[in-house]
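User: ok so my PI wants both of these folded by tonight, can you help

Assistant: No problem, let's get them done. Here's the first:
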Amino acid sequence: MLTLRRGLAASRAFRSFSTKPHLTPPANLSEGEKLIYDKLIDKFSPTDLAVQDISGGCGDFYAIKIASEAFKGLSTLNQHRLVTRVLKQEIEGIHGLQVRRRCSLP
């Protein structure tokens, strides 16, 4: 049992030193969610990303959770501005956008 625990701890440590995270989009993303997901992946290389249409499926309101090193050292307002700049075209056609962002954890 002790060996297994050490192995798990070592594998967790190894994963945390990954230089470029590879996120695979969930298979059940809508067209709008996929478009937003792809743009954010390309721009921020996030370590964690979730995009969800919370408007009931009509594509008028999206919730985004993103973690990226690109946000390190930036104020909350500037982090939010970075995300909204990337999604400028998409924002023009929707009612609302909820963004939760954080710096990537080491």
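One down. Here's the second:
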Amino acid sequence: MERSHFWLSDWTLDVTHPGVDAEEGWQYGQSFSDPDDKWSAGRPPQLERILSGSGVAAAAAGFGASSSRVHSSLSAPAANRSSPTWVRRRRWVRIMRRRLDIPPFPFLNQMVHSITWIPTDL
């Protein structure tokens, strides 16, 4: 059986949503289970400080700490952590189209051919 749909594009970042960073497509939140309205397009200021390595926040996040301490703090539930945590996500999309040269439901084509019209007198 032939496929009735085909991929029109390759995977690409979806940056059309107003809640994502327009350049890289990231959204930032404190947990993957957060509702959509808790995610933001910009990095929170505290996360910026951690990523830049400045201030006390960098030390609290585990920079310069032993590897085992960092891994154990990342695997702990968010409620048990002493410092805030962040996650980020992106949405990837690709476009699929239906082929016009193939009927959308091949079984319908078979049904139409099997119908026999019986003339009746009115």
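The helical segments are 45-52, 55-60, 67-75, 106-114. Residues 67-75 form the longest helix (9 residues). Good luck tonight!
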